[in-house]
């Protein structure tokens, strides 16, 4: 690789620090305190800038076997789960907690390769209902009902 | 009324059939609520308030005490089993609790947590019983400059939480502090980094970050290993501690309970700082600090004893001064008011029955929790035997409910997912997540205390050194920060391999 | 085993109802029996939004009102409390604003409904909603340490005029919000230069501690928070912001700002609102029900427990009251240059 991983990360961080600093300098001022709300953010932005620069010149740690690296074939699965989760969140308030959770639990487990369909269906039906009852009736915390009447 | 007379009266109520029954119900309900990420002691008590309305105050308090302890314990269970800390107090427990569970020692970790909580709880109640009036003075001795110094001291833990690269840990911590600046600034009312989004005005919720960085990021690793069977299935539920292990954790529990209690007495500091400080100090005291973070039993015992002791300590300012020192005791205060009791400096004189009733119910709640939960551990830890593919979906659902039940906004859910992705990326590029979370938790309060101090002093920094407590803590913080850096420099020169070994 | 059976039956039931009823419900309040007679009654559960998390003042008011409505038999429909936390209330308000016309989505609010929009943090203010009824009132108290050199507000304000930088005021919320504004309002009436007041905000529960250990000098808070500390001789209350002295043990000892010659009051009112363009018949229904609630002995008990004052206003009065309040607060914020 032409550039080390540390260098790439460092450049990304420097960009973040610069954006953060620009936003910090734009904070409106407030006249009645000796130290305004922008002091700490500006300080933090500068610190991040310095630390990122230090990282840039730090050698990468010896590349041992990276435990967290996802094998290429698993990447679509992770992305798939993320998509399922986004759909779940998007539909939660529209269709309601019970229905979306049932669908999410069943489909996501299926997608991950769970093949005991009866168990899966049972869990997907029972768990959302139990949670819903626990929250709505016992804890008096209303979860979205959506299109269901309860 | 003297201490013993009061206690006996308190126990009479607590040990009646009705009393025991309500503590029992409280503990069970609390444990269940606490296990759901996002529902901690605060929610558990808040939802109990309408239920206890109209109840006999003494009995209602028993129920509350049960719920309180149960919820705290339930939170630890979620941290250990799912890497999903539901409250900031439970974050430090994940550091070694989850690795232990992954190695097939979930039962042991849960048992350690239960016993640690019990020891911490008991020691703090004993101290509370005898020292509450004396310690009340300590509780009000901290003003903004002292809090600033304390938070800074807590932040020095960042360096100790790093595995390998100190720079990466510091970057991670700095970003945590940056995240803490999002929202309306309390000293000026200025909205910072909110981009006009109303959901960001009150800042980003702790849960969004904790569940994202810890639990959801872990889900990605689970996906990779989804076809593996859970390891060491036969031993998941075993609670057994060897004699050597028991000997190892006993002093840990003792000293960290004391530390936790003292930190807990300070309003606002509470269980989170206590648990982090306990974890760090135990790591520093240990002969094998490299084991921490990889399933050290002392790494579970220390924060668990400390945070429970701290929650006992938080009752000192509440009961002796009427000052709620933590979110949980603030809700407790509300609960007591509903019951017709206004806690304040006169509580002990005006309502000795209530004062001792609370203390007696804490003793009982604590004991019942241990008795109930130890036998339940094998069942609770069975959650790990759920097939991975199903468990992954369930963890995601629990995280989502946890966040939604606190914020009721889908915006926070997207944010949660975002932090999940960030947490995973950080793992891949080997940036530790713990410093970020710690800095986020402490950062908001630290900045506010810093600027409150400067407003009070009209801008003069001398306010931080004229207070001996603040000056002393700042000095310790300074040393705690510098010494490890100097040490690592030295060891790097002497032995270049050292750095990689500890990575 | 029995339990499991019951659970199973329940689940079955739910699945069946789910299957049968999805899609049969329509949005909003179009299925209400309004008619021309002007009579309206709820025919499905009512939702009260507390624009804050569990445990706070709004949440407590909403939960207690919901409970007492049902317990005293004033409203038979189920009433659920929903927490919509965020933005000092603006998230909850935006949610209710989206329910235009619905008579089933109420919310509880207090002065922040005026303050937060004036600070530029909410698109919606009281004019966007339908005021239903105010129910309770609370007042501010200004406390100092028991051994402080001031014995009344005038002594304090005189010192503030002489050397503003030596006196720090603490409150639990940011500048421009309630704890700040209530102090500013009284101080201004007393002739203090309000741009010189040193105010720090402590949102982590340390305000009282800071007062007790002498870090700050004055604590701007609610009356209820001070009573126990005064009884114990730890602090003294220099003034409260009510029109007349409050009733009750210790409370009646607190002098009002008015009786000290400072012509200003501040009310922390708390009441209920509906979404924009709520039907007149529904407004009338809720007005009556809140009046009944306010008069019930059950709610009187709740008020007593929390130390709230009774302050009922119907929809019309309430709206007028809010308009006046808004003008006053806006004036103060303009003086400070904080109004957005």
TrEMBL record, chain A:
Q: Name one Pfam family in it.
A: TctB
Domain (DUF1468) spans 11-144
Which keywords are on file for this protein? Membrane, Transmembrane, Transmembrane helix
Q: Which InterPro entries match?
A: DUF1468
Query: Record keywords: Transmembrane helix included?
Result: yes
* Segments crossing the lipid bilayer: 12-33, 39-58, 79-112, 118-135
Organism superkingdom = Bacteria
Q: What is this protein called?
A: Tripartite tricarboxylate transporter TctB family protein
- Organism field: Tigheibacillus jepli
UniProtKB/TrEMBL annotation, chain B:
Domain DUF112 spans what residues? 20-438
**TM helices/strands, residue ranges:** 20-53, 109-132, 144-162, 169-186, 206-223, 258-280, 321-342, 354-377, 389-406, 413-441, 461-483
| InterPro entries found in the cross-reference section | DUF112_TM
Record keyword Membrane present: yes
Q: Which UniProt keywords apply?
A: Membrane, Transmembrane, Transmembrane helix
Pfam families, per the entry: TctA
Protein name as it appears in the record: Tripartite tricarboxylate transporter permease
Q: Which organism is it from?
A: Tigheibacillus jepli
Write the lineage as a comma-separated list: Bacteria, Bacillati, Bacillota, Bacilli, Bacillales
